[in-house]
């Protein structure tokens, strides 16, 4: 069973961003499956690398729109992205060094960070983006 079940309550009502979020959810689920099935370090490493790269791409998309539409909470939101990106880079470094086999605890942290960030932080730009024609 997937560790993160996508549902409509995670929709920020912007198709492009919902699709990126679903992509990230898919990566978390694939990583979790690889962990549960004991698929080995190489595959885990591959998914973590992909996830870190995609996360940076996704954050850049959100930040671009926040800047374009003059979102008031831009710097605070960006700081959350930077903190997560730093943690993700640290996770990647540990997996690359072979010092960390992913655990359920790490997977739960990833999942909860994304859920809380979408529901608590991303939702705050939803109206502004829609009002600027981004749907
Ligand atoms: Fe965000």
Protein architecture, described:
By secondary structure, the chain is mostly helical. The protein is built from four helices and no strands. The chain binds fe (ii) ion. The site of fe (ii) ion (FE2) has 6 residues, from α3 and α4.
SSE layout and pairing:
Blueprint: H1 15-36, H2 41-68, H3 74-97, H4 104-131
The structure holds fe (ii) ion.
Please trace the helix and strand order, writing H or E for each element. Answer: HHHH
Low-confidence stretches: none
CATH topology name, in short, is Four Helix Bundle (Hemerythrin (Met), subunit A)
Please tally the helical runs, counting DSSP H or I stretches of 4 or more residues.
4
Which oligomeric state applies?
single chain
Helix/strand-derived class? mainly alpha
Could you report the average pLDDT, rounded to the nearest whole number? Answer: 95
The CATH top-level class label: Mainly Alpha
Give the amount of beta strand, in percent.
under 5%
User: What CATH architecture would you give?
Assistant: Up-down Bundle
Q: Can you say what the CATH homologous superfamily is?
A: Hemerythrin-like
Bound molecules: fe (ii) ion
Q: How would you sum up the major sheet?
A: none
The total strand number stands at: 0
Give the helix level as a range of percent. over 70%
Number of domains: 1
Described by the principal axes of the CA atoms, the overall outline is elongated
Straight-line distance between termini:
31 Å
């Amino acid at each position: 069973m997937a560790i993160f079940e996508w549902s409509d309550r995670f929709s920020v009502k912007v198709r492009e961003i919902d699709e990126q979020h679903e992509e990230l959810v898919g990566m978390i689920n694939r990583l979790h499956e690889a962990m549960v099935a004991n698929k080995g370090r190489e595959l885990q490493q591959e998914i973590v690398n992909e996830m870190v790269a995609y996360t940076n791409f996704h954050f850049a998309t959100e930040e671009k729109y926040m800047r374009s539409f003059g979102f008031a909470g831009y710097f605070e939101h960006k700081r959350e992205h930077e903190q997560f990106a730093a943690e993700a880079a640290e996770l990647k470094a540990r997996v690359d060094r072979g010092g960390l086999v992913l655990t359920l605890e790490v997977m739960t942290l990833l999942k909860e960070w994304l859920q809380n960030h979408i529901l608590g932080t991303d939702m705050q730009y939803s109206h502004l983006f829609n009002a600027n024609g981004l749907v």
